[in-house]
Transposase (Syntrophaceticus schinkii), 224 residues
Amino acid sequence: MPVTFDNDTTTKFANFGPVESFKQAIGFKELIKSTFTMRKAPNSKYQSQEMLDFLVDAQILGLSRFEHINDLRYDPGYLKIKGDIECPEESAFRRLFKTLEIESLEELRSINQQLIALHSRTKEPTEIWLDCDDTVITLHGNQEGGEAGYNPRYHGRPSIKAKACFIAETAELVNLKAYGGKAHSNGEFLNFFKEAEEQLPHNYVPKGVRMDKGFFNEKKLRIL
């Protein structure tokens, strides 16, 4: 029996409705517009703030690669939830990232910090644990900051070392920073950790830190 899949009313993202409703309830778009100042040409079909909103949707829905973002563009359920608007092509997101400046990255940090602060207002003063980790990100091509350091999977390939700090109880990202591939886990860690503490809302009190042994030396143990 021949089978065809020609129904244009089905969706892979039916569970996205509550997410979009939550974003609207907390004023997510307004937060982006008031913080992310990057501007495109006035005649651009999509401004940077709109594209950032689409990009957040893609990450929430597990579409972590550029080429997968087009799934949103052609999904009737997602487009209906967004108000029957058109989603940009994946090439537009590539161009957006290509033109990002350091100032834009700091604004993205600010958006993240404001979201954590907004969440903290729903809680009484509370103790939290911080989880710190790092990972090797292999680079493909001649990209800024790449160094041929420790790379367990691709020996000799240039990479960057990304350090991350999360609130253990909520998995909220507090700090994220990139270093050259030759950086060790404990390299510049104290500065990284102090930055993470500074990002915390005033009613979050760190109770402890969890990290693997690569982050430790005698000096850091005494300070922590």
Observations:
- The chain has two domains: 1-122, 123-223.
- Residues 97 and 214 are 32 Å apart (CA to CA).
- The longest strand covers residues 126-138.
